[in-house]
């Protein structure tokens, strides 16, 4: 096992080449904002969650079915969270969702690049806040509230969403993935996929595989991660990850509940 680890560690032969991307990633100076592409002749957009209404839509339409957590963040915590941590929440939009057929294809050679944007996190947050304000209902009660960090319950999500005039429905969020970068001694970051969720109406249509394919590319070529790990909880997910060459590492994983 130790020999296998040694083979997988990329040596650092040029410290100058190492330190620049390391600091840029650490300070979130190079963050993929969006990647727009065609897949099987359908238009998609893979982008970071940059507006609070996107966060609310993810919580309401995707996460509520798969999490036992009953607390969600207000917009102040949300923007601090994406700005001050190595947490990267991404969503997959599909354009004209009503025309999407039951396609089960993993031919990623058919992906055709349209456009992409890499920005620093300050630019992303500014764009997100401006767009958030654009769709915010001006008569909402909490428009002029002072900055107060708070949580709210799952049953309050819809009332929070009602504070916004949501954008037109020519595109729809059909998937979500949480990516975390992890510090590691003497090399670039390791990474972890913490949560991959597909909208229940769009499962078994290769969208999970598509999100993971893009995420791996992102981690390798933009965030320069050394490796990516994840936890598998069901057979369907296991088959998906094996298609992408994830391997099972025999470990004795221990955990402790700190609050009982």
From TrEMBL:
Please name the GO terms that the record assigns under molecular function.
acyltransferase activity, transferring groups other than amino-acyl groups
What is the name listed in the Swiss-Prot or TrEMBL entry for this protein? N-acetyltransferase domain-containing protein
Q: Which positions fall inside the N-acetyltransferase domain? A: 163-246
**What Gene3D superfamilies does the record point to?**
3.40.630.30
Identify the Pfam families for this entry.
Acetyltransf_1
